[in-house]
Design goal:
208 residues; mainly alpha; 59% helix; two-stranded antiparallel ribbon
């Protein structure tokens, strides 16, 4: 298997708070428990978590409608729009859109404190697990053949490199995105068997 396997234990989410904060799968439940902790303790870190949660998962007007993940949407838009051609006529709009997506990820208008860094790590884990578990993502030739672990690992590394390295460089945002890139890279390497080698071979960066 590509990812390291761990057996999920039964969790008391409030025990040793906030150690199990990201283990709460339902966003409304996560927000509810977080609000309870804020009301009881008034902790500044929990208030920060609440602000980030509401930015990442905006409340929708329609009752019982699922809350969309703004980080996932921004990542997908970067993959799509970042691959479009840029010329004199469309560069300003393209740059405006790219900046908007990085802003939605909390990169251009926020401080990368410990709380935001952990949110980025959780997003990275979610994205990588989704890629590995998606039968369409890990296949080729219209789903007839599945990628080997190495090819799948390198495909994920290539997309991380593209979104956090190549696209920012094209729009003069390399330094602004550097911290986010490090989080994505470190999480990828920690989760994927042979991840450090795949990353090095895809990006050309030396093995550490």
């Amino acid at each position: 298997m590509l990812l390291h396997k761990e057996k999920a234990p039964t969790i008391d989410y409030k025990a040793n708070w906030p150690a199990h904060y990201y283990d709460i799968p339902d966003i409304d439940t996560r927000e509810k428990l977080l609000l309870e902790m804020v009301e009881v303790h008034g902790d500044a870190d929990d208030q920060r978590r609440l602000a980030i949660l509401r930015k990442r998962y905006p409340v929708v007007a329609q009752k019982n409608a699922p809350r969309k993940d703004a980080f996932v949407a921004a990542w997908m838009n970067l993959l799509i729009d970042g691959r479009l051609g840029t010329n004199f006529l469309n560069r300003k709009k393209r740059e405006r859109d790219i900046r908007q997506y990085f802003t939605a990820l909390g990169i251009l208008n926020d401080t990368p404190d410990a709380i935001l860094l952990e949110e980025w790590r959780q997003f990275a884990r979610l994205w990588i697990e989704t890629c590995v578990g998606d039968r369409t993502y890990d296949s080729t030739a219209f789903g007839l053949f599945h990628l080997s672990d190495e090819r799948l690992g390198k495909k994920i590394a290539s997309e991380i490199h593209e979104v956090t390295g190549l696209i920012p460089a094209r729009f003069g945002l390399r330094e602004e995105v550097r911290c986010f890139r490090e989080v994505m890279k470190d999480t990828y390497i920690s989760m994927v068997d042979e991840g450090a080698r795949y990353w090095s071979e895809v990006t050309g960066e030396p093995l550490s």
